[in-house]
Amino acid sequence: xxxxxxxxxxxxxxxxxxxxxxxxxxxxxxxxxxxxxxxxxxxxxxxxxxxxxxxxxxxxxxxxxxxxxxxxxxxxxxxxxxxxxxxxxxxxxxx
Length: 95
Description:
The protein is mostly helical. It is built from 3 helices and 2 strands.
């Protein structure tokens, strides 16, 4: 597979980029070099290699969900800049 300057122009149009002819030529060469390098992967013998979605095993790194004591309403409202009827009062964001 090979990238042409028309392909680069098409992608540039989709990305709303204005490219000069020199930039199109540069990107065409760079993208073709990337594809050529990726084709080297086809030369690898992958018999017996199990398909994976990640190179490393994934594990849940989150802490266990535990019920803990939360702050009292009085403690929370002491830190609030303003309160009304037991709730934090904030400036209106909608008119």
